[in-house]
Amino acid sequence: MAKNQNQNNQQPAIVDENELIRVRHEKMNAFKDKGVEPFGHSFEVTHHAADIKQQYNQLEGEEEGGEVKIAGRLMAIRGHGKASFAVLNDRTGDIQIYFKLDILGEDKYSQFKLLDIGDIVGISGKVFKTKRGELTVRIEDFELLSKSLRPLPEKFHGLKDVEIRYRQRYLDLIVNPEVRDTFIKRTKIIQVIRRYLDERGFLEVETPVLSTIAGGAAARPFITHHNALDTDLYLRIATELNLKRLIVGGYERVYELGRVFRNEGMDQRHNPEFTTMEVYQAYGDYRDMIDITHGIAIETAKAVLGTTKLTYQGVEIDLANAPRISMNDAVKNATGKDFLSCETIEEARQMAKEIGVDYEERFGIGGILNAAFEAKVEDNLIQPIFITGHPTEISPLAKRNADDPRITDRFEYFVFGRELANGFTELNDPIDQRGRFEDQLKQREAGDDEAHVMDNDFIRALEYGMPPTGGLGIGIDRLVMILTDAPSIRDVLLFPTMKVINE
Fold first, then answer.
1. Which of 198, 316, 342, 467 is placed for a possible disulfide with 347 were both Cys, Cβ 3.0 to 4.6 Å?
2. Contact (CB, 8 A) for 119 and 56
3. Which of 480, 487, 476 is closest to 185 using CA atoms?
4. What is the signed CA dihedral for 394, 398, 401, 404, rounded to 10 degrees?
5. Mean of the pLDDT values across residues 435-439?
6. CA–CA gap between residue 144 and residue 242 (Å, rounded)
7. Given a cut of 90, is residue 4 above it in pLDDT?
8. Of 479 and 437, which is predicted with more confidence?
9. In DSSP terms, which residues pair with 235 in a beta bridge?
């Protein structure tokens, strides 16, 4: 009895992947011996899996549908002897296919016996329903289009190893259809954003990725070297300053969708290269940008989800509702401390100590207010909300508020404790802008390597006159995360940055 129990509890034998690869190479050579090219050419596709299901779903009994030509990857093969079923996957989903000796003939059926899961084939056949009611294509002919020389993971229906998924995204896309769906939704989201702005008279433009100055945001840049010019260049950390130069030049509404690069750490919310969309509207202000942000959030949600209500990581969120509150009021509500009532930096420091907020000695009152917001408020902003009234000290490119010069006409849009958008009424006073840059240089000298550098050409552009302008930046990756219930930014980037490993 004990012996039988031990036998039943034996672990399945570990299959040597190299041996599986060797067998697949042998099958590839067997195809060649039959005069079949294992890596074929074009194939005329007339239908996809979803088309067949929609067109022929009403078939009944022995009723037969029309002839179809489909192509895709074999994801399962079952059956023996003179007939076998298989599952073929294309860009629209799965369809069952049926190989039968009597229909294919000896030679073609012998080729079928050489097929493996993962092979890409093109098939021609007629649609019917099995006795169990499953829509199926009875194969009359097929072509091997690409022999798969590596086996899919043993439990390919649930590939969970994130290292493999991110490093070998092609494998992730093959075996996890929900991942494919995420990136289809990402494309749709971007299409909706473009359409939303195009319909409102905005012009899409492209600006340089390489620049002599890393400006437009507070971030550490990547540095490269241009050999012909013998000069160092920076990969852009934002598109802002060049887009505002276009506003100076007479374009009244512009936007750019593209990659920016920041030499920072990696976590669930950050990747060194990511996608942003920046918008600038002449004769507008931050309130116009809030309206655009809210409109984009609503329209993209409706496009991919059919509703503004969603569940993100188990939490119900409604993008249709997004109140506005100032940063100082948000901190006051959370801590009871009114930092903008402080008349001295010592008073602000004492308030921070009383609520356990760390700050750096170089921080002014505005910097301490921002530190208190990040420590006590930001993570709790689960439902959509617009935070306004950011301190001038941390907003070097935003216009001062007319009633309180300590703050700017700026906002950040938060969902699930994450900043999805940042916008403001643009600073168009070149004298004030120069002073802000000079203050940023002092902060850089005090140790802040993310502080903004001086950009004399941008100041020169402002001196020619820039109309009052509203500006906005949206983190596309974070928006996609919210709309696809993705916990990590790596789940919405096809090829996220990964640590280099030696293979």
1. 342
2. no
3. 480
4. 20
5. 88
6. 51
7. no
8. 479
9. 210
